[in-house]
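SAMPLE LOG
Freezer: B-3
Tube label: C17
Construct: single chain, 332 aa
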Amino acid sequence: MRRSTTPLAFAAIGVVLLATACSQGDEHVRFGDKPSATQRSSAPAARESTVRMPSNPRDWTTQRTLDNGTKVVWTELKGPKSGFTGKVWAWVPKQYDEEKYRNSAFPVLIALPGSNGYPTNYWFGADLKLQETIQQAADEGKGLPFIVVMPVLNASDKDYWDGSDIPGQPKMGTWMSDDVPDLARENFRTYKDPRGWGFFGSSSGGYVGMKMVLQYPGRFGSAIAGGPDTEPTSPFWAGHDKERKANDPGYLASRLIAKGGPKVNISIMLGTKESGQAATKAFVKKYDKGPVAMRLHVIQNGRHSGRQYAESLTDGPLEWISKRMLAPEPSE
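STRUCTURE (predicted):
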């Protein structure tokens, strides 16, 4: 059963829907140009093997501007592999444009909303201040300066797909595992290593982020999941038991443990006033072994709320995954 969202989270969604209609005009932003052969060859050889330079930058539309001048932007993506079309928001930290990092990759954090996660993604909003939180943590040395990518989670506002390719349904698994990361690679300096890729999600978004890391450990290395389910709950799984099992985090974790890797890191945030605590704690206890490193972060008096998960990021989870991911490397 999909877990409900508290009024706090619904309020955030309402604010974001309003913000969507009030984006800052038609101001367009592009994060660099397609690098020439000369530019590619100028990067230090040791770094060139780990850095993927942007291959096909596009124009993005400004959604909002932070006090430090950085911008949250959006674009519409027609997924080449999934066939699904939806909006994607993005933000780069101020360090991204600093001269000393001109040849460096930056870690990517794909932020996923709870509830239906369509037609918007509430993590871009000024009310939840996800970007401000990440920037402050990076400035204080308590977290990495992540590129934040924020796609829609589902194909409509009436149903949910567990971030999976369910037979006969929109391919929301491929959208999340391939199309969205490919968009980031086309536009930003990113790492080839899975330690340069992670997720942060609330509720159903936390479930999808956690599942992606367990399902594709060769692509994504870390996740922070706020109040996630621990098993597939989409109604569209009816009659598709084999495919449902292939998207079950418990099955995926067991398979990864049996194989002995690759290594992944998952921080689960759980409020003491949330339902389903026993199942979540049992999940962490069972699968925190071998290549699967799990950490349970308990939020005292916390409810099932995206706002509370965002506010608790700097209480440990963001720093924990930052220590396990790749930081940008300044030029020598």
